[in-house]
Amino acid sequence: MTVEYLVYFIPFYIVGLVLYIVRALKGPTLPDMVLAIDCMGYVLAALLVIFSLYLGSPLIIACAIVLTLWIYALDVYMSKYLEKKELGE
Amino acid sequence: MSDLYSLTPYVVLAVSALASTIAVYLAIIERDLIKAVLYSAIQSTFYALIFYLLMVPDIVLVYIPVAVGLLPAILIIAVKKTEKYEDVGGVPRTTSIIVLLSVTVFTLIAGYLLVVSHAITFDVFPSLDARLLAKWFLATTLWWNRLFSSMSPEAVTAIVWDYRGLDTYFETSVMYLAIIGALAIARYLDIPRKEYREDVMGMSIIGKMSTRVIMPMIIIVAISIALHGHLTPGGGFQGGVTGAVTVSLLIFIFSVYFATRFFKISIAILLRIIGLAGIVLSATIVAIIGFLIGQPAYIFQNQPKIIAQIGLPYEIGGNLISGTLLLFNTSEFLAVLMGFAILFLLLSIPEENVLEVIKGEVE
Amino acid sequence: MNLLNPVLTIIGYVLVGIGAFCQVVAGIGMNRFPNFFVRLHAATICAIGGSFVPIIGCSLIALSIEEFGVIRFFLAGAGFVTAVFLLILAPVGSHLLAKAAYFSKAAVLYPKAVDLLEEDVERGEIRE
């Protein structure tokens, strides 16, 4: 198995994740927070794929696709909220 | 050194638990409601990671859409329609700092104990020794004998439909009743008939174009999650909420007038009824067959049992379909997708129309 | 396929390493940059360099592991689908957010050298 070396890369992703959490909790304005949550979602998608490979269970990977889609949907909701328009238009 | 690195999943668990705890705390004390919604989205994301590391992908596939996607959408719509700030005095600063510090210390101690327990046992992550109940479930679901299992390699779907079929049916009925309640509240409302104009309505052209490109791919992924529910993690509900992304994107990026070109509320209600009828059919089809050919059979039966010797075929032409599981997943997909479509369409009716209807009611 | 496996593994690990580097850089940038519009650059590095690239790398590694059997194609295929979604959706999400933040003035544009978009809007060439 060549998968075990992946574990040396995971701490870097976690450092990135923690830095995004700091910005998401601190963020002075709303768009900052949404942007940091976006980045958290993307690094989590990468982490999910890496973990499914590292833990040796390929079947659990479908979660990454769904996470990517819904993070995009959260973006769309928030930008729709920020625009001063009726929600349906 | 290698032992230290094998602790990585535990460290990730501890970091996610800490971050979600802090996010929950901030969501409770925040007065700006939109920020509170975002904090709760952070918490949901980390819970999803925790569930993922504990190897429950079916829960993750339900939790991400409901808690990251649908709940913020509905809350954001509600906040936009009402007011942005909570009308209550905040918590004193010293109290909040003390509570936050104690929560942080508690979480760190819990994570430390987890790591210590791992250092004592040196177990593989996740633990390989299963308990007696889990062993029994695995033995009766993954045992390839038609008399005892439901012939599906995915244990969760098999348990949900073969062992807890009545529960699943009532859960679906509860959601059905909730949507009926929403329809009853909005009984005189309808989406106004207006022509969709590309240049005025919706968001920017980049968003529209890429959404047009991505939409068929999302639908294909949703259908594959739903129809592979008896083979891989996923199922009808998971596929349905993934497909609900398309509806929300159609409404928010284009407009509700563009969405009503494809389906109206009445058509969505019709498809939903078809979905629920499919669930009822997949619950009773074996009993109906047994009644017709005069043999004993049960409701919610899938594969033949010892005293009821009839059942649906578990494969067609070499492809595993696991009896009624495929039918159940397809029907549940249709019911859930159309339920969320109705909800989003009702929520996006413009405020002026709602006010007009309410005025008419009062007079 | 046997001869190709080490090559796929090495390429995959290189891509995962690039992703790790980009995540740390983007995380630092996300905290050090002064305002929202500059932080968008860090978000781009996170989405494309830090997530799209390592997911492709993981799919390549998965293709090279023959112990998984047929199911490794499932892993690789789902990984590629995730990567394509990410490649298309992440920049569009950032664009929608930036546009909404600019025109609704929700984000403060404080250390400002030049703002050509504002001048264009004032001259009436660009509509909101």
Structural description of this entry:
The complex is a heterotrimer of chains A (89), B (363) and C (128). Chain A is mostly helical and 89 residues long. Chain A has a domain at 25-80. Helices cover 71% and strands 0% of the residues of chain A. Chain A is built from three helices and no strands. The mean pLDDT of chain A is 87. Chain B is mostly helical and 363 residues long. Chain B folds into two domains: 1-129, Four Helix Bundle (Hemerythrin (Met), subunit A) (Up-down Bundle), CATH 1.20.120; 131-363, no CATH class. Chain B is 69% helix and 1% strand. Chain B is built from 14 helices and two strands. Chain B has a two-stranded antiparallel sheet with strand order 1-2. In chain B, α3 (33-53) runs antiparallel to α4, α7 (155-163) packs across α8 and α8 (165-185) packs parallel to α13 (325-347). The model of chain B has no long low-confidence stretch (mean pLDDT 83). With 128 residues, chain C is an all-alpha fold. Chain C has one domain (4-123). In chain C, 78% of the residues lie in helices and 0% in strands. In chain C, α1 runs antiparallel to α2. Chains in contact: A-B, A-C, B-C. At the B-C interface, α9 of B face α3 of C.
Report how far the terminal alpha carbons of chain A are from each other.
53 Å
Coarse morphology of chain B: globular
Helix content of chain B: 55-70%
Structural class of chain B: mainly alpha
Strand content of chain A: under 5%
The main sheet of chain B comes to:
2 strands, antiparallel
Quick summary:
The complex is a heterotrimer of chains A (89), B (363) and C (128). By secondary structure, chain A is mostly helical. Chain A is built from three helices and no strands.
List keywords for this structure.
heterotrimer; A: 89 residues; mainly alpha; 3 helices; 71% helix; C: 128 residues; 78% helix
